Amino acid sequence: MTTFDGNAIAGTLNAVFGGEMTTASGTCASCGATELLAQLRVYRDAPGVVARCEHCDAILMVIVEKRGIACVDVSGFAALEEPTQL
Amino acid sequence: MAGTALRGRLTWQQATVTGLVAETSNTRSIVFDLPDWPGHRAGQHVDVRLTAEDGYQAERSYSIASAPEDPHVVLTVERLDDGEVSPYLVDELRIGDEVELRGPVGGHFVWESTCDSPVLLVAGGSGVVPFRSMLRHHAAAGSTVPMRLLYSARSRETLIYADEFTRLGGRGGIDIRVTLTRENPGTWPGERGRIDRDFLTRTGLPPAEEPLVYVCGPTAFVETVANTLVDLGHGPGRIRTERFGGTGTP
Ligand SMILES: Cc1cc2nc3c(=O)[nH]c(=O)nc-3n(C[C@H](O)[C@H](O)[C@H](O)COP(=O)(O)OP(=O)(O)OC[C@H]3O[C@@H](n4cnc5c(N)ncnc54)[C@H](O)[C@@H]3O)c2cc1C
Ligand SMILES: [Zn+2]
């Protein structure tokens, strides 16, 4: 399975959160590392998007789109910044 | 707010193909007309969405190859023979056709001409596309900061933007070094072999100059180069990476 990083889901994140998210940081609830979302390890081939921590591989975020409606699970983050404007 | 267009939510828009340029036998640039384009920053990308007659949709990201100063939005796509989307974009799309596109997106992998650090760009294969935008932006804005591109391609045949890079190189602080990994000896006077530790030491910018570093290309290429740069003493916080997917190294 081909791996991408958070840049690859900039469009999806923007559509879901309403702004630029790759420059926002998130804190992994599992290992405590704080990184820019641009650095997430991203798998896109799944039914949606799965994003993992680049340090401990924990699942941080899952986004599944069904008929134009996005279901977002961000429970892997202990903290997540708001989107920034471009 | 007179005179300012408030940017709404990111939405899909119809983009019309107005130009096609064959860059190599498997790569071409596509020029788009977009009625509602807010402008972009060098290094950003767009998402392209194709819809089949039965409603099935496929979505991929493509870097913007044109500079913010250029009049049109241009993408450059390399065909992967077993790919779902790229063969269509490279072989089938015709002038006048429409595709859905949303963007520009991505605020991390961007370079602004107002930034005064030296810049090191490291590209593998089609990873050179966002750097073409940055190099054009550098030239159009009259920047004089050193901007060095290290570009690895398989062979002379697969080099994209070769003529343009020849023109840009050596002007206003721009320095372009191409290395070919599978070209026959004797047919290429320049660098040969992968962008490895030795190559980065010889041709990169020294960590002491604290360059801003951008690395782009196939996932494995990006990871190897970024790790080597950290080993050589570049601060991880000065290195920005963008992975295009895939496992090969050009
Ligand atoms: C932010 C971003 C910007 C990008 N910009 C560009 C660009 O400017 N130009 C460009 O040509 N591509 C670019 N890509 C890659 C592009 O999005 C697609 O992944 C690529 O065109 C392959 O799509 P496909 O549908 O043809 O292949 P798929 O059907 O998705 O994949 C076919 C096979 O190729 C492998 N694969 C997927 N992607 C790649 C890859 N990049 N290299 C090698 N093997 C791969 C897959 O694992 C699979 O085995 C970019 C990707 C990202 C995330
Ligand atoms: Zn973690």
From TrEMBL, chain A:
<dbReference type="InterPro" id="IPR045423">
    <property type="entry name" value="DUF6510"/>
</dbReference>
<protein>
    <submittedName>
        <fullName>DUF6510 family protein</fullName>
    </submittedName>
</protein>
<dbReference type="Pfam" id="PF20120">
    <property type="entry name" value="DUF6510"/>
</dbReference>
TrEMBL record, chain B:
<dbReference type="GO" id="GO:0016491">
    <property type="term" value="F:oxidoreductase activity"/>
</dbReference>
<dbReference type="GO" id="GO:0051537">
    <property type="term" value="F:2 iron, 2 sulfur cluster binding"/>
</dbReference>
<dbReference type="InterPro" id="IPR017938">
    <property type="entry name" value="Riboflavin_synthase-like_b-brl"/>
</dbReference>
<keyword id="KW-0408">Iron</keyword>
<dbReference type="InterPro" id="IPR039261">
    <property type="entry name" value="FNR_nucleotide-bd"/>
</dbReference>
<dbReference type="Pfam" id="PF00970">
    <property type="entry name" value="FAD_binding_6"/>
</dbReference>
<dbReference type="InterPro" id="IPR008333">
    <property type="entry name" value="Cbr1-like_FAD-bd_dom"/>
</dbReference>
<keyword id="KW-0411">Iron-sulfur</keyword>
<dbReference type="InterPro" id="IPR001433">
    <property type="entry name" value="OxRdtase_FAD/NAD-bd"/>
</dbReference>
<protein>
    <submittedName>
        <fullName>Ferredoxin reductase</fullName>
    </submittedName>
</protein>
<dbReference type="InterPro" id="IPR001709">
    <property type="entry name" value="Flavoprot_Pyr_Nucl_cyt_Rdtase"/>
</dbReference>
<feature type="domain" description="FAD-binding FR-type">
    <location>
        <begin position="10"/>
        <end position="111"/>
    </location>
</feature>
<keyword id="KW-0001">2Fe-2S</keyword>
<dbReference type="Pfam" id="PF00175">
    <property type="entry name" value="NAD_binding_1"/>
</dbReference>
<dbReference type="InterPro" id="IPR017927">
    <property type="entry name" value="FAD-bd_FR_type"/>
</dbReference>
<keyword id="KW-0479">Metal-binding</keyword>
<dbReference type="InterPro" id="IPR050415">
    <property type="entry name" value="MRET"/>
</dbReference>
